[in-house]
Write a structure and sequence with these properties.
152 residues, five-stranded antiparallel beta sheet, two-stranded antiparallel sheet, 5 helices, 7 strands, 27% helix, disordered C terminus
């Protein structure tokens, strides 16, 4: 069986298939709730990126720490919490669903020790798809290249 070379174009499809796009941006694709991955390959080694995907709760930036929002009715929603429209809070849950709450509905917000990024994201992918995903993440978007500081 002949192995193909990893493809950033196929990796763009894997980025969507693995639901990375529900929280992360890469270039013009995806949501900006989690870290922007447009230039991730220039900031981190492949090993560190892979560890972050396999063990998402091992190291969590405070900026992206999941929170549990408890409503006045006792319902709990855990995920990345972001501002919505004025007077609203948006909770992006691990399954990709967004919950919009009015601030007056919220009784308490507590930091979570679990990452909002679900574990097991690579389990449904083939090794070739993982290689394609890394080729895509390694490809710097035009936006990231334009924003990169110039060296003198």
């Amino acid at each position: 069986m002949r192995r193909t070379v990893a493809s950033a174009d196929r990796g763009a499809h894997v980025f969507t298939k693995a639901q990375c796009n529900k929280c992360h941006r890469h270039g013009d694709a995806g949501e900006a709730l989690g870290p922007d991955l447009s230039a991730v390959s220039s900031r981190f080694r492949k090993k560190d990126i892979l560890e972050s995907i396999i063990y998402p709760s091992h190291v969590i930036s405070d900026q992206y720490r999941a929170k549990t929002v408890i409503t006045n009715e006792g319902k709990q929603y855990t995920g990345i919490v972001a501002r919505g429209a004025p007077g609203e809070v948006v909770v992006l849950q691990q399954d990709g669903r967004k919950v919009v709450l009015k601030k007056e509905q919220i009784e308490e917000t507590v930091a979570s020790k679990q990452s909002a990024m679900p574990s097991g994201l690579l389990e449904d992918l083939t090794l070739e798809e993982v290689a394609d995903l890394f080729a895509y993440l390694n490809k710097r978007s035009a936006t990231a290249t334009a924003q990169r500081p110039k060296r003198e």
